[in-house]
Every structure is written in C-alpha cells, then in structure tokens.
C-alpha cells in the first residue's frame, strides 16, 4: 500500500510554486465527462476544457483504457527506436489530412518551434540564408519559447527577455493588403491561426486565407497554419483548414490531440519534410508510446461523422442561448467563433472585465475562460451532453444576472 499523501491546499501554491500563474481559489480533484469536483466535493460544469484540450471531457473510457493498456506495456524508449503507437498515429494523421509526414513533440509551442525551424531550413537549403523572414499577425499567440514568443504578435509576452529573434514582422490579422505590402522574396513563411484564440476568438475570413495562400505561392514562401487550438475537431472539421478549404504547407497541432495527455504534432509534405534530415531537430519525449496511444484513441472517437456533426449542432445550441443572455443582460454584443471555440465579446460597459465574469461563473459552479480582457471564451468537450450545455448555460445566466444587478 502507498503511504498516505500529505494534505495540500490552494495556499500551498503561493509557498512552493513560481508565481507566474494566478490559479482560481479552488483545486479540482476529479472529473467525469463535463463535470468536475473540487476538494470540498463541490461540483462544477466544465466549459473551459483545459483551454481547448479536454476534447472528450474528463476520464473518457476510451482514453483511460488506451492509457492504462499502454502503461502496462511500454512508456518510453526515446527516438533512438521507434514505437508502434507513434507509427499508428502518424498513419492516421497522414490519412486524414494533406500531410505525408508527421513529427511528434510534447506541446503546441514545440510543434510551432518545429514548424518555424522547418520553414527556415527549407528556405536556407533552396534559396540561401537571405530568405529567412517570417510574417505573423498582430495579437497572435504561438507559444512561450523564445522563438515562438517572438513570432507571436503580443509584446507583453515577448518583452523583457533580452534580444528577440530577428527577421520576424507582424501585420494586422484579416488584412490581406497589409500582408501583400509586407511579403517579399525574403519571406520564408507566413504564419496564421485560422481562428485567433488567445486574443479573442477571431475567425479568419475565407478570402484572407485564400489570398495568403496565393501570396505565399507567388513569393516561394510557406504557409503555416497554427492549429494548436483549432485542430482535432474543435471547428466541426478535423482541422480548421478543411473547414475553410485552404491547404497550408505546414500545420501545427497539440491541445486536443492528446485529450489531456501532453502531445504535439507538426504535419507537412514529403517534399518539405526531407529538409529535416537526421540530426537537424529532435526531442527526447516526443512521440512517446503513452502520448501516442492516447492520441490514437482521441482520433478514433473524434474523427467520426457523428462527433464532427455534433460539434456543429452544439455550436448552434450555445450560440442561440448565449446571444439571448448577452442581449437580456447587456453583457456582450457579439457571439463569435466556429464549432466549440466560442467567444462572447463584452459590451462597452463590461470592457476589460472578463475576469469578473470568470469569477461570477465560478461562484455559480461553472468553469469558463477568458480570451483577453474583453472576451469570455468557451471551449468545452466536443461530446458535452445537451443536458450539461443547458445546465451550464443556466448557471452562466445566473452569473450574468448577479453581475449586472450588482
């Protein structure tokens, strides 16, 4: 028998953790489906989904089964050897997308790091060192490593860490003319989130993505889609590029791919992949059997007509009720997003107060997210039950009522 564990509480965070987070006052300890329980046994409905990660909710039997089975077989062998779950997962991703090749890592930042390094290596090999410039968008988010935070278009995350990686510029999102003015034959890649997640759940216009594709082709630049938040069913298509009908050269995925177990993937074509020859890039844990076994199970459930169609139906259910709540209480002016990545844009009176809405929802037993200070974000499980949607939105309405009456 294992020794009894020492009790811990929220106050311990302030004693032993680096203070770069400000977690909520309660500690979740158990989850089932779209419900979570805290240390005191209080039940909450989860519309946060671990920031668009828990694609099948909590403790989904298919994922628990896959993890348990693999845990009893093989955890880690490194990339000195390959493993069966990684090869099965690569086959599934290649069969379901434009890609011919997959690279596995542990997070979205690492998937983007690999994507940006590949783009620069391709340009270096084919055109020489001058062609290394990367164009990203204002308010984009691509991860927290020095390279990815430099590519991300939010100075609050990249300032104060010494010299930034050079050769990176930022243009306004959804502005094709600005991209046209910035792109040149020195550009090696254009990086776009099909829906900007962290900065407010802002979907791209189809014409914008089509225009970006054409500009990249004209200037021999690669089009990279950061699908860390939009991938693996979130939009009602397996990947958002399929929803838009615009195909990138490189795609990054993470978050939902593991359903809660850390894994990231970079997908690309055979022609580009060959530029990452043996020794050019690597990761110790990337593609480990545990993560890949879980991700295989995630894809088996998510990449089905029933689940993907369900995402679109649930979107309508959320949107209709949220618009009603927004109007009734004057809390927000717009409900935007695709599939089960939804942003409620706060009204003028509530600008900058997304944290207050988050807190009010938590008091009513509901977990939601912010996307910047002006947007309340919902990223629930893709298989959230209709009864949980109704109950969760009832709780959200109670929170809205209390907030606006105060």
Commentary on this structure:
- There is one protein chain.
- This protein is of the alpha/beta class.
- The chain has two domains: 10-59 and 305-405, Aspartate Aminotransferase, domain 1 (Alpha-Beta Complex), CATH 3.90.1150.10; 74-302, Type I PLP-dependent aspartate aminotransferase-like (Major domain) (Aspartate Aminotransferase, domain 2).
- Helix content is 40%, strand content 18%.
- It has 15 helices and 17 strands.
- The strands form four sheets. Strands 4-12-11-10-7-5-6 form a seven-stranded mixed beta sheet, with helices on both faces. A four-stranded mixed beta sheet has the order 1-2-3-15. Strands 13-14-17-16 form a four-stranded antiparallel beta sheet.
- Strand 16 and strand 17 (375-378) form a beta hairpin.
- The longest helix has 25 residues, at 305-329.
- The protein is globular.
- The relative contact order is 0.15.
- This is Acetylornithine aminotransferase.
Set down the secondary structure blueprint.
Blueprint: H1 10-16, E1 28-32, E2 35-38, E3 43-46, H2 49-52, H3 61-71, H4 84-96, E4 101-105, H5 108-127, E5 133-137, H6 146-151, H7 155-158, E6 168-171, H8 176-182, E7 187-192, E8 195-196, E9 202-203, H9 206-218, E10 222-226, H10 240-244, E11 250-253, E12 264-268, H11 270-273, H12 289-302, H13 305-329, E13 332-338, E14 341-346, H14 354-363, E15 366-367, E16 369-370, E17 375-378, H15 386-405
Helix pairs in contact: 3-12, 4-12, 13-15, 14-15
């Amino acid at each position: 028998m294992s020794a009894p564990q020492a009790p811990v509480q929220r106050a311990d965070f302030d004693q032993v953790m680096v203070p770069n987070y400000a977690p909520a006052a309660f500690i979740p300890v158990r989850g089932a489906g779209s419900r979570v329980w805290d240390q005191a046994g209080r039940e909450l409905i989860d519309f946060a989904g671990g920031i668009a990660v828990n694609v099948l909710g909590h403790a989904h039997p298919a994922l628990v089964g896959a993890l348990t089975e693999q845990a009893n077989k093989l955890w880690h062998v490194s990339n000195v050897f390959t493993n069966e779950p990684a090869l099965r997962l690569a086959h599934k991703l290649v069969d379901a997308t434009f890609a011919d090749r997959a690279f596995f890592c542990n997070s979205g930042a690492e998937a983007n790091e690999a994507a940006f390094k590949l783009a620069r290596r391709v340009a270096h090999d084919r055109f020489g060192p001058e062609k290394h410039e990367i164009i990203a968008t204002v308010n984009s988010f691509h991860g927290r490593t020095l390279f990815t935070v430099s590519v991300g278009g939010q100075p609050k995350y990249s300032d104060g860490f010494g010299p930034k990686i050079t050769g990176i510029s930022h243009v306004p999102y959804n502005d094709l003319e600005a991209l046209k003015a910035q792109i040149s034959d020195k550009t090696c890649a254009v990086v776009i989130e099909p829906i900007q997640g962290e900065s407010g759940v802002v979907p791209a216009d189809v014409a914008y993505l089509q225009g970006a594709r054409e500009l990249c082709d004209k200037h021999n630049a690669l089009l990279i889609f950061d699908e860390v938040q939009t991938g693996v069913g979130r939009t009602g298509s397996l990947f958002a590029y399929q929803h838009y009908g615009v195909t990138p050269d490189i795609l990054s995925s993470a978050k939902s791919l593991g359903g809660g177990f850390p894994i990231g993937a970079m997908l690309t074509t055979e022609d580009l992949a060959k530029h990452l020859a043996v020794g050019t890039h690597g990761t110790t844990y990337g593609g480990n059997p545990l993560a890949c076994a879980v991700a295989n199970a995630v894809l088996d459930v998510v990449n089905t007509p029933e689940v993907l169609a369900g995402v679109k139906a649930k979107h309508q259910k959320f949107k209709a009720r949220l618009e009603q709540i927004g109007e009734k209480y004057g809390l927000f002016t717009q409900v935007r997003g695709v599939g089960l990545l939804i942003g409620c844009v706060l009204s003028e009176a509530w600008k900058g107060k997304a944290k207050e809405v988050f807190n009010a929802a938590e008091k009513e037993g509901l977990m939601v997210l912010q996307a910047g200070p002006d947007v309340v974000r919902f990223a629930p499980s893709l298989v959230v039950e209709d009864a949980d949607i109704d109950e969760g939105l009832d709780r959200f309405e109670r929170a809205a009522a209390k907030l606006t009456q105060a």
